[in-house]
Design goal:
The protein is built from 11 helices and 18 strands. The protein is α/β, with parallel strands linked by helices.
Length: 306
């Protein structure tokens, strides 16, 4: 199961139809909660999610619409006695904000919460792949996140049978790369890793393109439309057209636009503006929407992304 569950799509001010930010990425055994704004617990309930599967929380920055739901989520993790550790990534310069949010009220803390502040060049290995954080351009310290699954190989049963390789011998071949005269390439095919990027409040900057490069699924803010581009530059935000341009130049497969200003009432305007810049698949996010990670590309197409 690899999908993005969108819990909220508003920016600074929620609306009747858009809750504050929150997104859950389900990636096999990992469940990563990004930017829990106010109301995240309730949105999770409406989406049929519990906190128990959450393995990691990633905060891009400490503006309220991206982090004020954190105290409730942490207390719910404690209340439900989630048995496994939950890592929390956040900008290192905002450690004081994290501490205040973690202990915002009194509660019996039964959680195994493991703060892991991020700085420039941060990387860590997870069961889903390598998670990277890079600084973005906003009015305070802000990071985007990129998840890259390593490339691997898919074993081909017919070729294994042809060489008489069965049972434990298959594992030996996978680990050693060779079994007698048979190589791993003889009995397998390339299995390209998948890639995901999460980008919130930022103006255009080099790291934005680095995060988005060749990803299968890009979740990116599109706070403004082109008519308000000057406001976006002033406050460190993107327009839908800018987000789509990043997707085109970075060879993104599926683009998810979100974090919309309350000033706009017609979601189709974001799609129209983005479509002028990007001819790939575009999703204009809605609360409680589920967006699958696209199926793997063929090995030859995957090579062209590197």
């Amino acid at each position: 199961m690899r999908e993005l569950i969108i819990l909220g799509t508003a920016s600074q001010v929620p609306t009747r139809y858009r809750n504050h930010n929150a997104y859950v990425l389900r990636w096999d055994d990992e469940a990563i909660l990004f930017d829990p704004g106010e109301g995240t617990q309730r949105q999770m309930m409406l989406a049929g999610l519990s906190v128990s599967p959450i393995t990691r929380i990633c905060i891009t920055h400490f503006h309220g619409d991206h982090s004020l739901g954190l105290p409730g989520v942490i207390q719910r993790i404690s209340l439900d006695r989630v048995p496994h550790p939950v890592v929390v990534n956040f900008p290192a310069g905002g450690h004081a904000y994290f501490d205040r949010l973690r202990h915002a009220t009194s509660f019996w803390d039964h959680s195994d919460l493991r703060p892991e502040p991020v700085g420039a060049g941060f990387e860590t290995e997870t069961s889903a792949g390598r998670l990277t954080a890079l600084p973005l351009w906003h009015s305070l310290e802000t990071y985007g996140y990129r998840l890259v699954e390593p490339d691997s190989r898919r074993m081909l049963p017919d070729r294994l049978d042809a060489h008489g390789i069965t049972g434990p011998a298959v594992g030996v071949l996978q680990r050693a790369g060779r079994l007698g005269a048979v190589t791993l390439a003889d009995v397998s095919a390339p299995r390209p890793g998948q890639r995901f990027a999460f980008v919130m409040d930022t103006g255009l900057c080099d790291n934005l393109y680095t995060l988005a490069e060749g990803v299968d699924l890009l979740v990116i803010e599109a706070t403004f439309l082109a008519e308000d581009a000057a406001m976006g530059r002033r406050y460190g935000h993107l327009t839908a057209g800018q987000a789509a341009t990043v997707a085109r130049e970075s060879r993104v497969r599926r683009l998810v636009l979100t974090h919309f200003s309350q000033r706009y009432q017609e979601p189709e305007r974001f799609l129209d503006e983005a479509r002028a810049e990007f001819n790939g698949e575009i999703v204009v996010a809605e609360d409680l929407m589920r967006v699958p990670v696209p199926p793997r590309v063929a090995s030859g197409d995957a090579a062209s992304r590197h």
